[in-house]
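Deviations from the work plan: none for this task. Representative record:
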Amino acid sequence: MKRLLRQLATASRYRNLRGRNSLIVGILILAFFGSIAVFADLLATYDYRSQSRREPMAPPSSLRLRDDQGNWHPRPFIYARHLVDPLERRYEETPQQRYTLELFARGYSYKLFGLFNTDRHLFGVQLDDSTSSIDAPRLNWLGTDGLGRDRFSRLVLATRFSLIVGPLGTLLASALGILIGLIAGYAGSWLDAVFMRAADVMMALPTLVLILAARAAFPLELPPTRAATLLITIFVVLGWAEMARLTRGLTLELRQREFVQAAVSIGCSPARILFRHILPNAARPLLAQTFLMLPAFLLAETSLSFLGVGLQEPEASWGNLLADAANLTLLERHEAWPILAPAFVITVFVLGVRLIGRGLERFDEAVTTQFSQAAKSA
Amino acid sequence: MLKLIFYRFAQAALILLLISFLVFVLLASAGGDAISDLQTNPQTSEQTLATLRQLYGLDRPLPVRYAMWLGELAGGSLGQSIYFQAPVWSVIQPRFWNTVALAMAAMSIALAFAATLGLAAARQTGSLADRFCDLSILLTSSTPRLVLAILALSLLARTSLVGGTTTDLPTGTWILRLLPPAFILSVPLIALLLAQTRAAVSETLREDYVRVARAKGLSERLILFRHALRPALNPLITTFGASLGGLMSGSVIVEQVLNWPGLGQLSVIAVRSRDVALLMGIVLVTSAAVLFGNLLADVLLHLNDPRLRQENHIA
């Protein structure tokens, strides 16, 4: 791992190295999502579970600097709005009630980084003591859903769940696949045959249908931590095959090389040979493969939650937020873009992962050609 | 060739048996069945539940149930769906053909797109077609089917292409309704096939026999289609076989969102209602279709490439 990081650091010094730009953009996108997950509570304007039954399907709050008399204000504000037609869910703004926005506003209390108790949120409506909390207008960047919950807060909090289940599943599945691949490639004979036949079968099967079948074995309603554990377990059990095949191929190739045979001749244990000699030399393609697998796992989680068998309401994941977007009546009656926001978020994240994968692949190619050229000239 | 087919059939049968056993044990061991949902209704007495379980044979021990299921399978029946109150095969069959049609349409779209663009891109690296190919691979591989399906739905929400009834459609409407899900299903496949075609064709274009063909003064078109394309078909055929599973998985989402009455949509119903027999039938039929597709790919590979026929038949 250390050597890999060093190689990457060296590579970043070469401006013309292929894949450098996609790597950088990809890493930036992932870092952006990572910080959203870490600071989710700070960014959220309201508790993602708190309902406001007076405001179902409200449109996004419109930020203003100029009031209806034509006066400009230094700080952005919103107007209070009221549901005028509960059936059509139509809202009207009342220009008499003007509310200024402020940074680091007070809201629900939470623990920042899981350590510090605070109730500050990045954005919020400035409230004086005269407004009771019931009359206070809510700031909804993306409007509200059918139960009056703030879409933006839900989307931000959903990032946490989606960024834990998919990536953790990928990591564990890769680890299992690498382990199986190393053993199969190094031990050979019947172990190899059994594992690789199993991998063939796994890869040929309709995975999502199997995941659905495996998911069906457990109760539909599960608390979030158990749902996450279950999904990760299913992903690991059904997702190791591709990684195992790649690792096995690399192991077969590397064990023929002189340095491995030298290690064998001085009596290194198989474990030492596998983890100290073979694995570090296979790290680059394995890392690239991990980034290729990640979108599939992330989308599997999203799809399951979307279908209603992953994470359950009122918890939020990118998938179950999208369930609204498949509702024809909602799409016909309301503005589509706030409902479709999760779809956009997912796409950007997957694009980031793909860019990293592509960058790593190109980097791998470049290093391999450099290596072979160096070997020729030596 | 016959030996290969026979060997593969035997292997497939074994795999299917294994899968059916695993799914059955998994579903049964977790507790709860198609009847448990009735428990939420306080008017259902314990006795009714017991009677219903006895009626459907859900009260017997696991090995007995599996043996019964296998016995029915041997007799050519997939059992009875509790949710639909009908034989599983009669529920699955029309939807199975819908899914096959969807998968075939998606595959044809992806192949047509990948073959044309891939060939054009492979002729010269760095050309306009090559760059466009690069971009298409990146874009098609990073837009998830779920996202595309939902976008398509919001665009088509006001048309008759989605929603409404989906059974017994006239052929014209059926084809029109097939197109949006087929296009969406084909998208990630395009990335896969495009990358394969380009890599394979540009590799064969560097072979000696292509240089010989050029030296003989053959036309560029003849070289491309007759000498370069055929060996390049090998990885494409392999990818075709390997991506069938993914296609079946992808169709679950696409069918569910765009309301296409196929197996994917049915599997969601089966999971939600915990209908074991129905789910077993779906898993079995889908897996069988995928394994058959793999076999087909192997046979095609042997037909396409005479070099493989010399080697060991049992691959």
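Chain B touches chain A through 52 residues (CB under 8 Å).
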